[in-house]
Amino acid sequence: MNSQSLYYSKIKYILNIRSKLLKKDQILANGEIMSETWDNKNEKSIVDNIRNNEYVADKLKDYLSLKYYPVAIKFFINKEDILTNIKRINKKLRHCEMVKKASEGETFYGTSDDQLCKGGSASLGLEEVPKKIKTGEFYHNLKRFKSIGSAKRTLDEIPKIDFESYAIAYAPLQKAEFQPDIIILITNPKQAMIITQAVVYTLGGRVNADFAGIQSVCADIVAGPYTKKVPNISLACSGSRKFAKIEDEELVIGLNGENINCLVTALESVVNS
Between β-strands 167-172 and 182-187, what pairing exists: parallel, antiparallel or unpaired? Predict the structure, then answer.
């Protein structure tokens, strides 16, 4: 099978929207897809997303030699917004565990009912913050803080999504059919250093890591980058290291999906310098 036929088959498999998606004679020699091929703009948008996500994922993998897939995160405000090919997760897990599953190749979405860690779920805008978490009592009882007051002061500063979503989709970036709101990387320190160099390559400045050792994979690297529109690096937390098996030598990075192509361009310059 030639490369053009492989590409055609892959698109047809991934989308699975209709029995007739593409005709072979409507694919140009350079691999671009003619807009006439699609019956509506949504189908064309999905293909555009897939192709760009594959490009970005391949570049991140090549330049960083990542152990895990970059993870694409998407907020769906309404149930009807969820793409039909994305299936709901079949068991309850913590957000950090869901991220780890996606980094290993799985695609799915989860609602607040599927989230075991309610602090993480609330920081992501899936539900209201439970009272014991909001007051600091929960983390004080876990002996993470000397007093309820110190716990509450920390929680007051933790980033939170300020709108309610019905669900969050998780996918390996190269398989994602949607434009990601956030891209999560599980890296080692050297890989994080290279990402940092790419972040400051074009405009300069500093990278300010914002974390407190709790709610790392949820608040630190999803809610933070989403609300502040800047990347963030976190050293993970006890929960994500225990349940999502983030290793001792690993940390996590959250990148804003809106400007990921600019970062990839800078990353290429950094790596090839």
Answer: unpaired
